[in-house]
């Protein structure tokens, strides 16, 4: 299913795929070296947040210091693993001449900047600086949004490597950073209680869920059929449904997750219906 979603999302743009040239390239050497270094630094920080001695304070633990009523179940954070895996493909693919243009002009130094800031965000979160961490995550969201929109509008997919190692990881990263920003917002300005959320907190969480659901639908409707981003949002809403027990939050998250998933297949169904209508009738 995921492979079909990725394929439909990244190949939905009306342009021919060009052949993939895999000759090694030394163009933009400093940029490529920097990308490689910051990637492994970013990866090591995330691994430490999971297995390190202070992992209880990290963003991937339900026993951390910053629980919220919109925190998803731990399986949601598998998105980080998938993102890191595909970004590893990016830092390898960047060394081939097919990637020179998109690496230099499409992504540029923004990826290295976002990785450094993301590592900083992890440290701030673990140390309990929730408001400062929220400001950092907004900066990361701005950077990733810049990369995302440049890729979608100016650097369409040319080959399977572009699709898998450039467009897909940044689509996932873009959607996931929206989810993390919402979680961080609630962690910074709300608190959990033994008796569960009060009425105001419930309303605010539902507003946050509707925002996520609207974002997921927006990926399908306005981002040239970005089903990858929609799937990440639906996955996160499902994880919130599993984790949160307050009925209004619980069922709203499930309903929005289903709505985003159903809406994401709309372009595929419409395309199939259009093809069926245009096909000649055989007696």
Automatic annotation (TrEMBL):
Keywords: Membrane, Transmembrane, Transmembrane helix. The chain crosses the membrane at residues 29-49, 69-95, 107-125, 131-149, 170-189, 201-219, 226-242, 248-265. The keyword Lyase does not apply. Signal peptide: none annotated. This is Uncharacterized protein.
């Amino acid at each position: 299913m995921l492979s079909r979603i990725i394929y439909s999302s990244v190949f939905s743009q009306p342009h021919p795929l060009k052949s993939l040239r895999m000759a090694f390239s030394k163009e933009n050497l400093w940029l490529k070296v920097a990308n490689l270094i910051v990637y492994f630094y970013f990866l090591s920080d995330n691994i430490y947040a999971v297995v390190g001695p202070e992992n209880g304070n990290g963003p991937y633990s339900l026993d951390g210091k910053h629980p919220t009523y919109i925190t998803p179940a731990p399986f949601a954070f598998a998105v980080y693993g998938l993102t890191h895996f595909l970004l590893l493909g990016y830092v390898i693919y960047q060394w081939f001449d097919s990637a020179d243009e998109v690496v230099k002009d499409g992504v540029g130094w923004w990826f290295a900047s976002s990785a450094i800031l993301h590592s900083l965000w992890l440290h701030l979160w673990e140390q309990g600086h929730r408001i400062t961490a929220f400001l950092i995550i907004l900066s990361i969201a701005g950077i990733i949004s810049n990369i995302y929109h440049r890729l979608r509008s100016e650097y369409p997919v040319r080959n399977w490597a572009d699709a898998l190692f450039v467009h897909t990881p940044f689509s996932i990263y873009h959607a996931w950073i929206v989810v993390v920003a919402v979680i961080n917002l609630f962690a910074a300005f709300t608190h959990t209680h033994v008796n569960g959320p009060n009425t105001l907190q419930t309303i605010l969480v539902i507003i946050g869920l509707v925002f996520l659901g609207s974002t997921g639908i927006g990926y399908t409707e306005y981002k040239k059929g970005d089903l990858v981003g929609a799937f990440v949002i639906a996955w996160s809403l499902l994880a919130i449904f599993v984790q949160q027990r307050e009925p209004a939050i619980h069922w709203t998250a499930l309903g929005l997750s289903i709505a985003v998933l159903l809406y994401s297949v709309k372009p595929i169904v419409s395309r199939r219906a259009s093809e069926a209508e245009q096909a000649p009738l055989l007696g």
